[in-house]
Design goal:
Blueprint (H helix, E strand, L loop, with lengths): L4 H39 L1 H37 L13 E3 L6 E3 L1 H43 L1
Antiparallel strand pairs: 1-2
Helix pairs in contact: 1-2, 2-3
């Protein structure tokens, strides 16, 4: 069943809130690990490496969750508009496999490509309406000017 406009807006709002929550978590994780990293700098290179590794692991999970949401959003929009989605393959520059989640997400290039394709499809669909709208406005302007001249 196709979702209504209101359902779509609600879903998008929920997804934006979830992304914002993950971004907040990233900042909290970095703030939590900053003193540990500072302390580890004074201890040893091994302790510093372990502290940075732990921070990286926790932050990368949050980034992967954000990428999963954005990938789902773009794929859903592409399917809705009939835009072909790039296929998963090892040679593809558009996909990567998350080390933390084990799922596939669009890379930055893949997201850029899909956004560009979606935007061109939307523009292609709107062009006839814009052309006819401009034509009707010009005809209406002509009619109004003819009426004004006639009086």
């Amino acid at each position: 069943m196709r979702e209504t406009w209101f359902q779509r807006q609600r879903r998008l709002s929920d997804e934006r809130n979830t992304v914002a929550q993950h971004e907040y978590e990233i900042e909290a994780i970095k703030a939590h690990h900053a003193p540990k990293i500072a302390k580890a700098k004074t201890v040893s290179a091994q302790a510093l490496h372990e502290a940075e590794e732990q921070e990286y692991f926790e932050v990368s999970i949050q980034y992967d969750l954000i990428d999963a949401i954005r990938t789902k959003q773009l794929i859903r929009e592409a399917i809705r508009l009939g835009v072909p989605v790039p296929r998963h393959s090892k040679e593809s520059d558009f996909w990567y496999e998350s080390r933390q989640l084990g799922s596939k997400h669009l890379t930055d290039d893949g997201q850029h490509f899909l956004r560009r394709e979606i935007a061109s499809e939307i523009e292609l669909r709107q062009k006839p309406f814009l052309t006819w709208g401009a034509f009707l406005i010009s005809v209406l302007g002509l009619c109004i000017s003819m009426i004004a001249i006639a009086q």
